[in-house]
Design goal:
The N and C termini lie far apart (66 Å). The strands form 2 sheets. The chain has an 8-stranded mixed β-sheet with strand order 6-5-4-3-2-1-13-14. Strands 7-8-9-10-12-11 form a 6-stranded mixed β-sheet, covered by helices on one side. It is an alpha/beta fold. The protein is globular, with a radius of gyration of 20 Å. Helix 3 links the parallel strand 9 and strand 10. The longest helix is centred in the N-terminal third of the chain and has 18 residues.
Length: 244
């Protein structure tokens, strides 16, 4: 009888596995990271930047001294679905495009808006998650709210670990981090935050470093480069290079 029950359970498991649709696919996408807007005769706006393709998005790193008492940085995500790209420096967090600010606490003001920041009630950062093909890619950012302070803080590391753990619990394997800290700190981020696949930063030149943990991509600050990324169904980076 016991042997019969064991056989029946094994058969049911096999049938359920066979009937479950296979949804493990890879992802291909392009990323641009701007630290300087194009020079124009009038006030520069984000809508003067060429739109990203459907498979990509453009990040613009900006500073806004008008929202809080002290200047802080944020990253705006320009996506093909958004029609208005004006830099809403006076109306944040009510922006028409996603705003990433992982270690800036907007508190309850972020509710109902596309502002992905640290929430003191949750102890983690909400990530911008987008679908590419049949898989999801999550984007987090590590903001330096105090210019001149170029050292990582343990509270930021804890925040990132909690955020990445939460994403993995949700079944999201592909995670990209944009760091506004010096690129020399990126290797530590990739090593210490298990689950990160790509760390993006800005520097004097564009370069790629691939390690066992993932990919380090440094964007040149004054050049609009495009990073090409591919993930396999298990979430591992299989392609990480600048478009030639």
């Amino acid at each position: 009888m016991r042997r019969s029950l064991t056989y029946t359970a094994a058969l049911l498991t096999t049938l359920l596995t066979a009937c479950t649709p296979e949804n493990r696919q890879g992802a291909d996408l392009s990323i641009r990271f701007l630290t300087l807007l194009p020079v124009t005769s009038g006030q520069p706006h984000l809508d003067q930047i060429a739109l990203p393709s459907h498979e990509g998005l453009t990040f613009y790193s900006a500073q806004n001294p008008q929202v809080e008492k002290q200047p802080f940085s944020y990253v705006t995500a320009i996506t093909p679905e958004v029609q208005a790209y004006h830099d809403s420096v006076s109306v944040l967090p009510q922006a028409s495009f996603p705003v990433l600010a992982s270690n800036i606490n907007f508190g309850l003001k972020q509710s109902g808006h596309e502002v992905y920041s640290y929430n003191g009630y949750k102890g983690r950062a909400d990530a911008l998650v987008r679908w590419y093909g049949g898989t999801r890619v999550a984007f987090l950012s590590l903001i330096n709210p105090y210019p001149g302070n170029e050292q990582l803080h343990e509270q930021d590391m804890i925040l990132l670990r909690n955020s990445v753990d939460r994403l993995q619990v949700r079944g999201i394997r592909n995670i990209v981090l944009l760091s506004q800290y010096p690129s020399g700190l990126s290797p530590r981020l990739l090593t210490d935050i298990r689950g990160l696949d790509v760390v993006i930063s800005a520097g004097a030149r564009s370069e790629i470093t691939v390690t066992q943990q993932g990919c380090l991509a440094q964007f040149q600050q004054s050049v609009v480069d495009q990073l090409e990324l591919s993930f396999n169904p298990n979430g591992k980076v299989t392609r990480c290079h600048f478009q030639t």
